[in-house]
Write a structure and sequence with these properties.
- There is one protein chain.
- The protein has 146 residues and is mainly alpha-helical.
- The protein is 66% helix and 0% strand.
- It has one domain: AhpD-like (Up-down Bundle).
- It has 8 helices and no strands.
- The radius of gyration is 15 Å and the shape is globular.
- The two termini are 15 Å apart.
Length: 146
Amino acid sequence: MSTRINMATTEPAGYKAMLGLENYLQSASLTPIQKELIKTRASQINGCAFCLDMHTKDALKYGETPQRLFLLNAWRETDLFSEEEKVLLAMTEEITLIHRQGLTEETYNKALQFFDEHQMGQIIMAVITINAWNRIAISTHLPVSK
């Protein structure tokens, strides 16, 4: 792939704003595994190799199992994910694929069974943030580390 701009140096204020979102998410009450499931699933949908590489490694570091990562894009077809995780993944998909139908009432209401309003807001912000990072990485051709 061709070399493209480096957002951190070309647009440092914008990049710093993105890092502000990351810093906010560090203080969120979501577990590290929940955050990495969101980041990995959205990155799968968006086809972001850079982010998939980073977040699957991070998920493993936090104790996620390889099997669950291998089956993440088929989470509906396995019992390896809890009901709470399944609603988290449904939210991730519906927000990432916002053009289809958005976050449905069904998914939103089911999520309220597991998450309070603050956690719901944190999930939404986590999905928005990784989708923005995916778009930065894909459009600037960030390379996967070897």
